[in-house]
Specification:
Blueprint (H helix, E strand, L loop, with lengths): L2 H11 L3 H23 L2 H17 L10 H19 L11 H15 L3 H6 L1 H12 L3 H11 L5 H8 L3 H18 L6 H4 L1
């Protein structure tokens, strides 16, 4: 966690609602998109993200975060989504996910959470490098990656849409993630680049 994030956390712990609003407004929409990718239902995704922020605010005085705020929020939303899927797996609104889907989404979370939103604000270079890295993927891998990552489709949905096997989708996603990690290694802590 960098010094700016430490200051934000400190202000939230002190009850500064304006700083909390800044954090909420900075991450709410993107966290909802991420949660919807896992849960498939916008309303449920929004409720999960709102609950994460509500619990963060209500527990602010005892809050202890040692990773970046972005990583903390993504991991908390990710875990709450998995808990929701587990607790409501018999409901029709929750589609089945393969273990590979969940693992892939978690690897993407590692890519995203390796730097904070404040770092992004300081450098447009990160976004440019990420876009170039995605553009450098082979055509099929790029298409599969974008469908999974940006449209939130499961492996089986991508396979059906592209008329390919689920194992091809899985293989292409693993290759794409490894290639992106290699291209963006300078932005990762050392344990993610290995």
């Amino acid at each position: 966690m960098n010094n700016i994030e430490k200051e934000i956390l400190s202000k939230i712990q002190e009850g500064d609602i304006k700083v909390f609003d800044f954090l909420f407004n900075s991450y709410y929409s993107i966290l909802c998109v991420y949660a919807k990718g896992l849960l498939r239902v916008s309303q449920i995704a929004e409720e999960v993200v709102q609950d994460v922020f509500l619990k963060l605010w209500n527990g602010r005085s005892a809050l202890s975060i040692n990773i970046s705020l972005k990583a903390y929020l993504y991991k908390t939303v990710h875990n709450r989504c998995l808990n929701y899927i587990r607790d409501h797996s018999t409901q029709k609104v929750i589609k089945e996910f393969s273990i590979d889907d969940i693992k892939s989404r978690f690897e993407l979370l590692e890519i995203e959470s390796s730097y904070s939103i404040l770092d992004e604000l300081l450098s447009d270079q990160i976004e440019d490098d990420l876009n170039q890295a995605i553009d450098s993927l082979p055509e099929q891998g790029k298409k599969i990656f974008c469908l999974c990552r940006f449209q939130g489709l499961s492996y089986s949905e991508v396979a059906e849409q592209l008329n390919i096997s689920v194992s091809t989708v899985k293989t292409q996603m693993l290759r794409s993630i490894e290639k992106l990690k290699g291209e963006l290694i300078r932005y990762f802590p050392s344990n993610l680049g290995n």
